[in-house]
Amino acid sequence: MMETQGQFNNRMLGLSGLLAAILVLTNVPAWGAVSGTGTSTNTGTSSSSYQNQSQTSTNTNTSTNRFPSSFDSAYFRKRSRTNSRPNVVLFMADDHGANDLGCYGNDAIRTPNLDQLAREGMRFTNAFLTTSSCSPSRASILTGRYPHNTGAEDLHQPLPSSQKSLAYYLEQNGYYCASVGKWNLGEAEKTNWDTVVECSAGVMADETLKVFDNRPQDEPFFLWIASKDPHRPYQEGTLTPPHDPDNVPVPPYLPEHPAIQRDLALYYDEISRFDAKVGLIRKEMASAGVLDNTIIIYMSDNGMPFPRAKTTLYDSGIRTPLIVWWPGRVPAGSVQRHLVSSIDIAPTLLSIIGIQQTTMQGKNILPMWRYPHVSARNAVFAEANWHGYEKFTRAVRTERFKLIRNYYWDTPLWNSVDSIDSRTWRGMLEMKSSGQLTKAQSKLFRPKRPFEEFYDLEQDPNELRNRIHQDKYRRKRNHLRTLLDNWRIRTQDQMPKQRRRDGWTREGVPLRHNQPSYNRYLHPAETNKFVW
């Protein structure tokens, strides 16, 4: 009897699983080692001593990969029609929460282009950033390193010239590298790029297409398209028609208040604007005939710019939407539910292209792009450092549990400066004054934090109930403590000798030493305050 296509697919899936088991049982080296993605002894250090040292790294993760890289890299090369190195387009949103896309189950937001990208590619449901702060997160993604190992872990710190970013490796190997939109990585990193165009969100698509049209036609390209959407401040009239505030869901850590619902609706408007830009850019690239050999990635640098999201290590701060599109290589309409860290993206791209590197701490997760059932990590790690206010917080997350350790426990959690002076913050203050905040919602106003927080994400996905003292979680809690301690030792994560001063009052006013923000604040025409 002739074998059907479905039977053939099932048989091949079984064979791939058998191959994976053989590779693991016979102790074949992890595919990170095969492809040269950082197999030497770790010398990652804290930022104070790191910048003058040579960059080598070790795999700092906690699980064994299922396939060697040579297996999957050969597969992807064979599937390429042109057998040439792929182009890479990475769309980077600014403060886009993971749940705020139609393809992630949010029916209130209009994101047709990104929803289509997910239908034609792979959607990741457990992708996490290493920090929830704009420039440190982007530096971490591009270098494939944890923030404290980049020398740029605090907000607005420039990436040192000693760091080797994805653009560095690609440009050295014949790629045309261009960044369009927001740039907050410093002057030294610009030397790794052929073109850097800084522009607003409104003209980002036009500027991107100019760069695309003027690129060298005989070189593969890497485009880092970094929109300023949906970063604050928000304005009316961004989208026509706008989102209806009455239809916008409010997460349980925020109170339901008309001002907050309106703020969320304006945030949705900016996400939809970026979605339209993504669609326009894809359309023009399709007309140019380059998409058949182009990898498209969509993600964010941190969570939404609302209290208890951005700058925190809750999932609302560090979980990112992640969509990977590569026709004929990444299965269309697939969902990858296993843990991924944002530092895994750069080494994976370099592995696909065939570029050796020894500086990145992330994992080559190429098999996860092909096989949704494959996992590469047991845990992900994240950190919070200075972002307007001083922090030294660390976290480890498995698929079910999370441990957060607040080393500066004697300070309030608070929130990012841009959300203090917002409609949402005003709504929270009104609800607080009338005694209508829940225990979870009032957490931001407490003068101190617990030293440790432990969450069962299966029972409490919004991390509203700290279970650090519950005996039934003792073994899991201690296991995560060990993971976190070992990670800090491996990556030489050291506390600073003294705390960095806050840049702002808790009411959002810049302090005298915080320049140039303080001087701008003194002049009403250049006020630093955000619009309600």
Model description:
By secondary structure, this protein is α/β, with parallel strands linked by helices. Helix content is 31%, strand content 12%. It has helices at 5-25, 31-34, 47-50, 69-79, 112-120, 134-143, 166-172, 187-190, 204-213, 258-287, 315-318, 345-353, 366-370, 417-420, 423-433, 474-490, 517-522, and strands at 87-93, 122-124, 127-128, 176-181, 195-198, 221-226, 294-300, 322-325, 334-336, 340-341, 380-384, 393-397, 401-406, 452-456. Strands 5-4-6-1-7-8-2-9 form an eight-stranded mixed sheet. Helix 9 (204-213) packs parallel to helix 10 and helix 10 (258-287) packs antiparallel against helix 15 (423-433).
List keywords for this structure.
globular, disordered C terminus, 532 residues, disordered N terminus, alpha/beta
Shape: globular
In which order are the strands of the major sheet placed? 5-4-6-1-7-8-2-9
Separation of the first and last Cα atoms: 70 Å
How much helicity do the residues have? Answer: 25-40%
Radius of gyration based on Cα positions = 23 Å
Our count of helices gives: 17
Beta-strand percentage? Answer: 5-15%
Give the integer mean of the pLDDT values.
Answer: 86
Structure summary, number of beta strands: 14
For the largest beta-sheet, the strand count, sense and barrel status come to: 8 strands, mixed
Q: Given the helix and strand composition, which structural class is it?
A: alpha/beta
**Are there runs of 5+ residues with pLDDT below 50, and where?**
1-71, 77-83, 526-532
